[in-house]
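Hi V.,

Quick status before I head out on leave. The structure for the redesign project is tokenized and pasted below; the design run finished overnight.
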């Protein structure tokens, strides 16, 4: 397989009022499972300073297939789609490729 650029994911979640602790608790499991994936490079969870109901996920994968595998995993389907998404007011996901000027 040819060498591919990694794909970074920026997901911005606006959590419903009063649900941020529930979402963060669920995300702990998602984080722990995600970093076990062979093609996961990192999985970082950030919380907004001025708006604590804003969660930003910064994830790295070796390629787009790895993202597809991540999204098709049983824990993603059960926890993210089944339990977390209903607790969100809004969810935006941007896939990016790092720009290297070397």
């Amino acid at each position: 397989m040819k060498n591919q650029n990694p794909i970074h994911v920026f997901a911005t979640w606006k959590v419903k009022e009063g649900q941020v602790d529930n979402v963060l608790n669920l995300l702990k499991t998602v984080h722990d499972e995600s970093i076990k994936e062979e093609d996961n490079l990192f999985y970082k969870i950030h919380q907004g300073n001025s708006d604590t109901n804003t969660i930003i996920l910064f994830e790295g994968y070796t390629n787009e297939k790895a993202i597809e595998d991540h999204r098709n995993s049983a824990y993603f389907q059960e926890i993210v789609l089944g339990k977390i998404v209903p607790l969100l007011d809004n969810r935006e996901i941007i896939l990016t490729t790092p720009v290297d000027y070397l």
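Above is the designed sequence. Residues 7-96 form a domain with the Alpha-Beta Plaits fold (CATH 3.30.70.100).

G. will cover questions while I'm gone.

Best,
W.
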